[in-house]
Design a protein that fits this description.
Shape: elongated
Largest sheet: 2 strands, antiparallel
Number of strands: 4
Radius of gyration: 35 Å
Distance between the termini: 30 Å
Structural class: mainly alpha
Length: 500
């Protein structure tokens, strides 16, 4: 390869090659959706990830109330992780907005009021909150604690191995409840519901993996975390179906945000901090009014929920809901507090999206708790982070491959230049040898042998030269006594006389 060609390659920015490769990666239709990964990735990079990151820094979306100490119902001998990285730092009283504490007191007083069940109006307004929930609902508010999600960021904790594997096996096995009391001969009627359920679970699993790999302990840097390219390449890179399921979940959540945009824009997100609250409302309204959320996330361009649970397929909706409730119960058995925190948050986010898309009632503000609104938006942001992580990892892998190819071009180019330099040196040596022969100097010394050989070798008498050096270079005894020059000549012998 010529130096000109190499310089041309180097002059082209490496990012151009990476973007070309990534374009191929992205341009794939997301199954069960009306959009492709390229459209989603482009908008995520352009503004979604940035604005969702800022939104999650606001107080309303930072302070999450969670039943993190709810006991495990499945395994009485459930193993717990006692590593410092597994623990959760609870909020102190000063972290909790006073407005929320006042509302809790008022709600508790309301619940303690005795209701006359013989008054028809009172009974008609009673509503079973649990009916609308797609995840297991915690009725005991006293057991729930406030956690700052920014202080307890998602990532590597060290919780892995058999205990983590047991959790994931139980999660996938819970999917079998979808066909509870459904005749085997009728299961083909529910293929779409089955497929969507699996994709939601698989995408949730991929999200968890991405968050761990994106925040992995950095070598030789204690208490520092960052992306791990090697693990990504080993575990996720070759499983594009897992990655596509992650994209599916992201689109699913975006569709829920689109459908509930009027609820989100009207929801009371005040925490008592005027400047922070104003920024929260401003960011949310900006996001909800973007053309992407209003148009591209409609049922025509993202996920069409009207294709599910139709006619006789409505029978399976309760089973679908119970699968998610069982999975949320399984999360109570996660032995790592921080892992449990984020798993519960993400499942509540997905459950809120399911509630928005498949509720029978007209969506209204009073249908949603603050925790649900928080979980929906924070989970959307986490999927956005995971997609950004995947894009970065894929770009690095393409750059890595490109650099390896370019390194090969450099080796070829260097070999070509060395051959040119060697040829020039040989030409000079042959000329000198010819001059010595002309003077009649025919001594049998080592130097004369070199000159004669070079002359014969590069003046066309190749076979004779190779025969002359065969015994010298192939003798084991002689090799140990060779000078540097002799070694170089024998290297040339091995190169030009392989068959002699």
């Amino acid at each position: 390869m010529s130096t000109t060609r190499l310089n041309t390659l180097i002059s082209i920015p490496l990012c151009v090659y990476a973007l070309l490769f990534i374009a191929v990666l992205r341009a794939s239709q997301i199954q069960d959706c009306c959009c492709d990964t390229e459209t989603v990735s482009t908008h995520n990079q352009e503004f979604l990830n940035e604005i969702l990151t800022v939104i999650r820094q606001r107080t309303f979306f930072r302070i999450f109330k969670v039943d993190i100490y709810k006991p495990c119902k499945l395994w009485p001998d459930n193993t717990l992780c006692f590593k410092p990285t597994c623990s959760v730092q609870e909020c102190c009283d000063a972290d909790i907005p006073q407005k929320w504490k006042d509302m809790e007191v008022a709600n508790n007083q309301q619940y303690n009021i005795q209701v006359d069940l013989f008054v028809s109006d009172t009974f008609e307004h009673w509503h079973n909150i649990d009916e609308d929930q797609w995840v297991s609902y915690s009725g005991n508010q006293d057991q729930m604690v406030y956690v700052d999600l920014v202080r307890n960021a998602d990532g590597y904790t060290g919780y892995k191995g058999e205990e983590a594997g047991k959790i994931w096996r139980a999660v996938y096995e819970a999917k079998n409840l979808l066909y509870l009391n459904i005749d085997a001969a009728d299961r083909h009627l529910y293929q779409r519901e089955d497929r969507v359920l699996f994709r939601l679970i698989s995408g949730f699993h991929t999200l968890t993996t991405c968050m761990v790999f994106a925040n992995w302990p950095l070598p030789h840097q204690p208490h520092k975390y960052g992306p791990n390219l090697e693990l990504y390449e080993k575990v996720l890179h070759d499983h594009q179906d897992w990655i596509e399921n992650l994209y599916f979940d992201f689109v699913f959540l975006l569709r829920a945000v689109n459908k509930a945009s009027h609820v989100l824009s009207a929801y009371d997100m005040n925490t008592g901090n005027p400047s922070d609250d104003a920024m929260t409302h401003g960011l949310m309204n900006y996001l909800l009014r973007t053309d992407f959320v209003q148009t591209q996330c409609s049922h025509l361009h993202s996920f069409d929920e009207s294709t599910m649970f139709q006619e006789e397929r409505l029978l399976i909706m309760d089973n679908f809901k119970n699968v998610f409730r069982n999975i949320s119960d399984i999360m109570d058995c996660v032995g790592c507090e921080k892992c449990k925190l984020h798993a519960k948050l993400e499942l509540l986010g997905l459950g809120t999206a399911l509630k928005i898309l498949f509720t029978k009632d007209v969506l209204s503000v009073d249908m949603f708790e603050r925790n649900e609104i928080l979980a929906l938006m924070v989970t959307l942001g986490k999927y956005s982070d995971a997609i950004t992580f995947i894009e970065d990892m894929e770009q690095q892998l393409k750059l890595k491959k490109l650099k390896q190819n370019m390194h090969g071009y450099v080796d070829i180019d260097n070999e070509w230049e060395q051959q040119q330099q060697t040829q020039a040196t040989h030409d000079d040596t042959s000329t000198e040898a010819a001059e010595m022969n002309a003077t009649g100097d025919e001594s049998d010394g080592f130097d004369v042998l070199i000159y004669q050989t070079f002359a014969a070798l590069f003046l066309g008498e190749k076979v004779d030269a190779c025969q002359q050096w065969k015994r010298f270079c192939e003798s084991k005894e002689t090799i140990e006594e060779q000078t540097m020059v002799a070694q170089n000549i024998c290297n040339l012998y091995a190169e030009f006389c392989p068959k002699i």
